[in-house]
Amino acid sequence: MSGKDRIEIFPSRMAQTIMKARLKGAQTGRNLLKKKSDALTLRFRQILKKIIETKMLMGEVMREAAFSLAEAKFTAGDFSTTVIQNVNKAQVKIRAKKDNVAGVTLPVFEHYHEGTDSYELTGLARGGEQLAKLKRNYAKAVELLVELASLQSSFPGLNVPLLISSQSWMKESERSSTG
C-alpha cells in the first residue's frame, strides 16, 4: 500500500466514527453501481438477443414480401400508378417514446395506424387476393423495421453508460479490495 493512498487522520473516537460513515457510504455507492451495472447488462443482452432474432426474421419477411409483390404484379398487372396517384397521407406512422433503464433514457419507436385503407378496392377486377397478401406482408415488414430501428437506436445509448458504470464499479471494487 503506497503512502499516497493513506488518509492523514488523528486517532480519536470522532475520527473513527467519521471513517466508519465514509466506509458505509463507499460500500453503499459501490452496491448501487453494481446494481446499475447489472440492470444495464441485463437489458443490453436482451436488446442484443432481440436484434439478432429480428434481423433473422427480417430476411425471411422481406423475401416473402418481395415474392408477393412479384405475384401481385403478375396477377394484377402494373398497379403502381394507381397507388402513387391515391397517396395523399401516410397510413402507418411512428411515435417516439423514452424508456428508462437504471437512470438511462433509451429511445423507443412504435408504429400505429391512422386513417382508413384507401386501397380497399384496388385489384377488385383481378388480383385482389394477391394485393391483400402484398399489403399484409409489407405491413409486417414495416412493423419489423420499426422494431429493429428502435432496438438499434437503443443499443449505443445503452452501451456507453454500461461501460462507464462497469468501469466505475470495477475501480470501486479494486479500491475496497486493496484497502
UniProtKB/TrEMBL annotation:
First and last residue of the signal peptide: none
Q: Which UniProt keywords apply?
A: Ion transport, Transport
- Major place of residence: membrane
Query: Gene Ontology cellular component?
Result: clathrin-coated vesicle membrane
Membrane topology type: Peripheral membrane protein
Q: Supply the Pfam families for this chain.
A: ATP-synt_D
Q: Where in the cell is it found?
A: Cytoplasmic vesicle, Clathrin-coated vesicle membrane
Looking up Gene3D superfamilies in the UniProt record yields: 1.10.287.3240
Q: List the molecular function annotations (GO) for this entry.
A: proton-transporting ATPase activity, rotational mechanism
Subunit record text: V-ATPase is a heteromultimeric enzyme made up of two complexes: the ATP-hydrolytic V1 complex and the proton translocation V0 complex. The V1 complex consists of three catalytic AB heterodimers that form a heterohexamer, three peripheral stalks each consisting of EG heterodimers, one central rotor including subunits D and F, and the regulatory subunits C and H. The proton translocation complex V0 consists of the proton transport subunit a, a ring of proteolipid subunits c9c'', rotary subunit d, subunits e and f, and the accessory subunits ATP6AP1/Ac45 and ATP6AP2/PRR. Interacts with SNX10.
Function, as annotated: Subunit of the V1 complex of vacuolar(H+)-ATPase (V-ATPase), a multisubunit enzyme composed of a peripheral complex (V1) that hydrolyzes ATP and a membrane integral complex (V0) that translocates protons. V-ATPase is responsible for acidifying and maintaining the pH of intracellular compartments and in some cell types, is targeted to the plasma membrane, where it is responsible for acidifying the extracellular environment. May play a role in cilium biogenesis through regulation of the transport and the localization of proteins to the cilium.
Which PANTHER family does the entry mention? V-TYPE ATP SYNTHASE SUBUNIT D
User: In which family does this protein belong, per the annotation?
Assistant: Belongs to the V-ATPase D subunit family.
**What's the protein name?**
V-type proton ATPase subunit D
Q: Which organism is it from?
A: Bos mutus grunniens
